[in-house]
Amino acid sequence: QGSVDCPNLEFKYGDADGHSAELAELYSYTEEPELSTNRRCFEEDFHAQVQGRRWLELDEAQQKVYVMHLLDGLEVVNRDKRLRVARAILYLAQGVFGDCDNEGDVLHWSRHNSFLLYRLGTFTAFLELLNMEIDNSQACSSALRKPAISLADSTELRVLLSVMYLMVENIRVEQEADPPEWKTCRETFRMELSFPVHTEEPFALLLFTMVTKFCSGHAPHFPMKKVLLLLWKVLLFTLGGFEALQAMKVQKREELGLPPLPEDSIQVMRSMRAASPPTYSIELMEQQQQKRGHRSRRVRAGASSWHTAQDAFPIGTIICSRSQLVLRSMFPFPLSFTESQTDLGHFLSSYRLFLGRRDRPPLATTSFKAVVESDEVSPQPPLLQAKQPQFPQPLLIRLGEEEVQETPCEILYRAMLYNLPQYMIALLKILLAAAPTSKAKTDSINILADVLPEEMPITVLQSMKLGIDVNRHKEIIVKSISALLLLLLKHFKLNHIYQFEYVSQHLVFANCIPLILKFFNQNIMSYITAKNSISVLDYPHCTVYDLPELTAESLEAGDNNQFCWRNLFSCINLLRILNKLTKWKHSRTMMLVVFKSAPILKRALKVKQAMMQLYVLKLLKIQTKYLGRQWRKSNMKTMSAIYQKVRHRMNDDWAYGNDIDARPWDFQAEECTLRANIEAFNSRRYDKPQDSEFAPVDNCLQSVLGQRLELPEDFHYSYELWLEREVFSQPIRWEELLHCQ
């Protein structure tokens, strides 16, 4: 149980893992034989078209001619011929590994071919084929009739999604040596995915639709891992990663006239050191000492170190003024410090100078309470957005329409809006099925359709290999869902606070909070150090090197990595999501208390990684006041870690339980008020005003008759019939007309 011996994990958090690792996770080990199938389909066609040459020996013009030949082959009616052509294109996107000598060459040609394929319109052609496969009712009904679904049921979809994923990932990743035309292609592709020209919706929405169709049971053969990976990378490409988010935050604050951000949170956390979490044996001794009467110690007059002050003032046992509590929660100092108004003024002036707050009123003209409240954190853009006036509909018509900037995030939200609850429920259903703590149920969805082979293993070695493949498959699904949910929350929060709140509420309504807690209710160190990978089978290694003989011992040993990057990445993402859902929300904080999250989160502190520990400590901090004095006494080392790692505010009283008299119905009212504000925002900005009773009416006969109406295509063919049925055959009631006048 001891965690002191756990080594520090050298983990660098970012948008995604290394390029080759992200490409390798696209394929399951069961799909390995298909690599040679793709190569065979390409070489059979290529050698028939180009005699005695290799792909690497062709110049760019000759390569374009051959790619155009392949794209013409996608137009054929025969399904099998079309699949062979698609496999040949997939082989190009995979880097023509048959002509390469090492992994670096494969990755180089994969990027080169991806840019070439995009410039010639391959992505658009595959998008049309993907729409055809999604609407293929025969494949859906065939999969529904089968008792067990395997890889063979999703062959066409997997080929199409693999080509699209390789193109998105290769074009998304920037490298210093990229030529200028590649940079132009990248921006064009990003704009094409963000601002759809030929369709009414962004590409990400089609993938969301695939997710909901899969979860509804209408398309159980959809390869969900590939769909989710592609969806995550499309969102990362179109919306932007953490660096892009930071740049947008800076720009937004400038537009709103707010002071610049003092630091980048991600960069600060990367430089933090992990704390040694308390072991249960040490805390047990402390509890026993407290029972024997060692409850407090005298204060030394000149105590200045934080640990000394922490030991001298046990949380919950000090009786002093609020001002002393406030200042002591920020910085340690002797008790007599706050008794001097002059010293207090010097302290606040220094603190303001440290925060860059030179625009605050002087202490002589301000009460202490006002000083503390004025020194709160600067207002954030979401707070300003939430405080914008909510005009009634008639007034909005007189004032004109609200100006909304057409950003990729805004377009995505508008497209997702009316089906957003279904999207969130579907994602959480898949996350639940992929969680290692979930037990197999008959009514749960089957997420293994794109990893199980047609013939089940018959030897122990084959069973071990499939077991590793299944676990790896689930880990990749958790990684992609956690990353895309965090991306959505962060971008929607920056775009408009109520967009963020709308997504957050539906995640909470779909039981996201207990789901994440259930995920962490396991041996988290075992999950982070899991070795569910076979490095010799990973792409692109398996394409250029001969496969060694696999044994049960080599599979058990796994790789030599200290930890599994994707699992640690997933854990941090889930903790960040939980923080975003519960921050400043008392009702959701109480959910953490009700679901007994404290011991679960405390066990997660065993992982000695600074960023993960910080988000665990944040979640413990917000619920500390509700856990009771005895819990605080029994967990002094955890309390000390919160003081050391988590940012505090001037009037932060998280450790003193001042709000424990709040009533449950206040929490319900809080959620209802928030929901009403969200609905008002969505109605104001996105509902069509034509249906409103306040919409203006055009009373001019010439203006009305001069308007062009959109008529259905078949109306011109049935126009005469319509005239006969609707006009000539209807009697004219002149008396009613006279009465109207």
UniProtKB/TrEMBL annotation:
A single Gene Ontology biological process assigned to it is: cytoskeleton organization
Q: Boundaries of each Far11/STRP N-terminal domain copy?
A: 6-305
One Pfam annotation reads DUF3402
Name all Far11/STRP C-terminal domain ranges.
362-719
Q: Name one GO cellular component term.
A: cytosol
User: Cross-referenced SMART domains, in alphabetical order?
Assistant: DUF3402 (SM01293), N1221 (SM01292)
Domain of life where this protein originates? Eukaryota
Protein family membership: Belongs to the STRIP family.
Q: What is this protein called?
A: Striatin-interacting protein 2
Q: Which organism is it from?
A: Eudyptes chrysocome
Q: Gene name, please?
A: STRIP2
